[in-house]
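Q: Please design a sequence for this.
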């Protein structure tokens, strides 16, 4: 994990009040879907250049939960390119 990515992870556990336990962590996600995790972390590094830290922390949590959902419920999705439209059968 790069230094900026590590900052996202630790920033989410700091501040007033008690931090919530995490459902998913980047190393856990990277073990199951390394390309997906790398893409998400690069995106977080990119938005950290222009957004406020609280916005990056918020995006980090949302992307971690979404990535964790994909890893648990759609193991065939290993990269964002694999995420597609939902096919509905009636």
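A: Design:
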């Amino acid at each position: 994990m790069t230094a900026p990515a590590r900052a996202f992870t630790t920033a989410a556990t700091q501040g007033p009040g008690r931090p919530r336990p995490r459902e998913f962590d980047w190393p856990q996600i990277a073990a199951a879907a390394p390309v997906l995790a790398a893409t998400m972390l690069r995106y977080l590094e990119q938005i950290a250049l222009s957004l406020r830290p609280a916005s990056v922390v918020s995006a980090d949590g949302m992307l971690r939960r979404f990535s964790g959902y994909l890893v648990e419920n759609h193991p065939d999705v290993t990269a964002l390119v694999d995420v597609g439209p939902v096919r509905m059968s009636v």
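Q: Thanks. Anything notable?
A: The two ends are 44 Å apart (CA to CA). DSSP finds four helices and no strands in the chain.
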